[in-house]
Structures are given as C-alpha cells and as structure tokens.
Design goal:
Helix content: under 10%
Strand content: over 45%
Number of domains: 2
Order of helices and strands: EEEEEHEEEEEEEH
CATH topology of the largest domain: Elongation Factor Tu (Ef-tu), domain 3
Largest sheet: 6 strands, antiparallel, barrel
Structural class: mainly beta
CATH superfamily of the largest domain: RimM
CATH architecture of the largest domain: Beta Barrel
Strand order of the largest sheet: 1-2-5-4-3-6
CATH class of the largest domain: Mainly Beta
Shape: elongated
Distance between the termini: 44 Å
C-alpha cells in the first residue's frame, strides 16, 4: 500500500501500558467509525506497514487505545511512537452536500459568485489557524479561506467549488 492510496487517520501519541498498548489521537470528527478496525497501516520511515489490532477502545473523544498484535512490551510500543496511522482511501465514508475531504477537491475549479472563475485548487493549506484553498490562476497563487459561509456548493460531477468571497479578496492576489 502506498501513501497516495491512503488517508491519514491519526498519530500514535503515547504508550498506555507495559504490555505494549498505545494511544492513537484520531484526526476525525467521527471517531466512533474507527472503534472496531481489524488493521491499520503504520508509517515507519518511508513505508506503510500493516499492523493488526487485537483490541481497541475509544477514550476521551478522539483517543483510541489500541493493542496491536506482536507489540507486547514498552520497547515494542516505543518503536512505533509518533508514527502516523493510515487507512485505504476506499474506507472513507462518502460525504455529500458541501462536506468534502481535502484530497477530494484537489484539481477542482473554484468559481466565485462575483468574480467568476478563479482557477484550480492545487493544495489545501491546513498549517494555519484557518485552512486555505491554494488556487493556481495562470501561475499566480490565490488563497481563499475554507469558511463555511464562503463555500456555497461542491459540485462533484463537474469538479467545481462555488464560493462567495468578500469583495476585493480575490483581486488582492491578482492586481
């Protein structure tokens, strides 16, 4: 399995017991969907390695306590600490309406209600306090905050994100 075929589910953040259990902080709004998984991919170096789950339980919202097969000691658990956890893309629940996964809209065209066609989404920048659409307009970068009030429609069939941004926002990047 390759990283491009998977989605990021969370990260191993701490050891839980001397028997190799770990705590995974899930990066999801619906942690209960991942309560009874059979396996996950753990990012070790540049590889995704399958790990099978003996038992797991949700605790404190988005924390998943996991006992992996063949991870039986604190040392075993230490070897996978801070590793990313991934699942195949086909396990993502389908979203409808104006909800979307970041990877899903890459390549979509952004059309603003006032400005018209802005360009194509090349990336989602989620390192700032507010996630941003990174849009390429003929070699120039345009950033639009991903605010629910701005996003009017996600047209999956035509690969279009319709937005309504404050006056002057888009022109700020293009003038």
């Amino acid at each position: 399995m390759q990283l491009k075929d998977c989605f990021y589910l969370g990260k191993i953040v701490k050891k839980h017991s001397f028997k190799g259990e770990v705590i995974i902080k899930l990066d999801t709004d619906e942690p209960e969907l991942y309560r009874n998984m059979e396996s996950v991919f753990v990012e070790l170096g540049n590889n995704l390695v399958p790990f099978f789950i003996e038992k797991s339980s949700l605790s404190r919202g988005t924390m998943l306590r996991v006992k992996f097969e063949d991870v039986d000691t604190e040392e075993d658990a230490e070897a996978i600490m801070k590793s990313g956890i991934y699942l195949p893309l086909d396990l993502l629940p389908k979203l409808t309406g104006n909800k979307f996964y970041y990877h899903e809209v890459i390549g979509f065209t952004v059309v603003d209600a006032s400005y018209g066609e802005v360009g194509k989404i090349t990336n989602i920048n989620d390192s700032a306090a507010q996630p941003l659409f990174e849009i390429d307009r003929d070699g120039r970068e345009v950033f639009i905050p991903m605010i629910d009030d701005f996003i009017k429609k996600i047209d999956r069939e035509n690969k279009v994100v319709e937005v309504e941004t404050p006056e002057g926002l888009i022109a700020l990047y293009l003038e």
